[in-house]
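Handoff note, outgoing to incoming analyst
You'll be picking up this chain. Sequence as last confirmed:
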Amino acid sequence: MMRRRIPLILVLVLLVTPAPTAAATATHRPSIRTATDVGLAAPININSILPIVNNQSVSNAQVIADLYPPLLSIGHKITIRWRQSLARSIRVTDHDTHFWIRLRHWKWSDGRPITAAEVAYSFTLMRDFGPRYLNYSIGGIPMVVRRVRLLGPHRLLVVTHHPVNPHWFELNGLTQFQALPRFAWKGLSVDELYNEQTEPSLVRVVDGPYRLAKFVLGREVVLVRNPAYSGPPGHFHRLVYAMYTSSEGAFWALRSGHLDIGNVPHALYRARGLLRHMKSCITNGGFGINYIVLNFVNPRVAFFHELALRRALEYAINQKLMIRVAFNGFGTPGFSPVPGSPPTYLSPLLRRLTDHPSLMYRPNHARALLRSLGWRRRPGRGWVRRNRAGVPLRFTMLFPSGSRTQIIVADIIKQEWEKIGVDVRLRQIPFNLLLAKLEVPHGHWSAALIAWDYEPDYYPTGEGLFNTHGGTNYGHYSNPTLDRLIRATNVEPGRAPLYAYERFMMRHLPVLFVPLQGNLVKYRAGLSLRAVDSTLYHVACVPPSRVKRVDSPSPSR
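Most recent structure output, in case you need it:
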């Protein structure tokens, strides 16, 4: 989902939480304080604690998952972790239309047993919320579901309207189901829940590893361990998510001891020595992609319809340079909408390109493609830009503010495109304004640098993102072949349909792909890497010695 996950302006707070002593840590589960979105992105606000009706930001989703875990737990390698899941098993019959689900005998925090009716209730809320539900149509939810039938206290049947790819439906559809305490919400409608999504009293009864102790908008969320949790206990007695206005603010909170876990911003990488008293690990930036969306309905940039021109722009993006300069050597090249880290769903061809990104950096070929389209060089502004029939090859690229890393990434793209004669103007705006511009039908923007996190659409098949009329197909690209390929990934089993979709996207470039950043995470001495890993949302953190860097200028500390 888009990382989306909507950043809002936060209130900077530095609240001191005393760190436990080593002796206390040895006998008790420690308390820790962390920023939001660690290992993924800059910290953003938590502005909802209710499932379904929230804005699906990463920070919201992370806290909600601590309170109300999904039916299926997805691990770092993007596979189902059955031992951590509320579902004990799923059996598929009737030509891949019937999904028979058995639940574990788990309990709510007040001791009541969790029932299948409370899992079915989550689907009712998704259906009733309709297109306002920001995961609407992902995994076919709710349209592909014909009915949800209760078979007993711990069994339910989900029936689809037509045969589906079971792997797709489990990873993208059933991952959106969760047990929700209808009895505690006293018949509130989905609209009433939407209006009360910051109300702590509505999350008194939970079924996750933690329960809510305190929620102050713009400041912090305090969670404490749920002793009645039926799964593996939480690693911490007390877990605090503190909210900061910037990555730099969170960094200095790490330095002063106000945080126990946090990112080192790429722009402050050289200052990491100030945190040498802390341990280090590296994340892959999550299971997602960074890309440049192109506006195919703006007549001023009608040249985006020319495939050769899109290929020229992609060939001129120096991904190795971007990883080395903007991400300090930590990052994963990307040439398709399927993430390269972990490479669970990459085809052999895409794995080869990810391992050797220089194969796709071909600026001379990019120049030749532009010449073949009639774009001739014309002098201007101290460099040579291209012109065709009196029209300059010029457009503006929007990108979100709030991150110095994004500025560096945009500048590198601009400089590389200028080398082949493309005149690109950069405009930095707040992300919520950027998103609003992209969502306006037939908007007048030209291109925008954005990101997408695949959650809950863990099987990265592109429905909603790149199909015609997809809810987040912001550029309005439309191609019947692509629509057919995406549909095939939803209904046909096996990896072959997904690989065919990858190849089409790599060759036809409805969007342009850029690398995904890795993140250096620092954490307090005395914490285990496993404990730190448990605080991160769908991302693994590994020791720096296990991470291959791109042309690293200096060793990690």
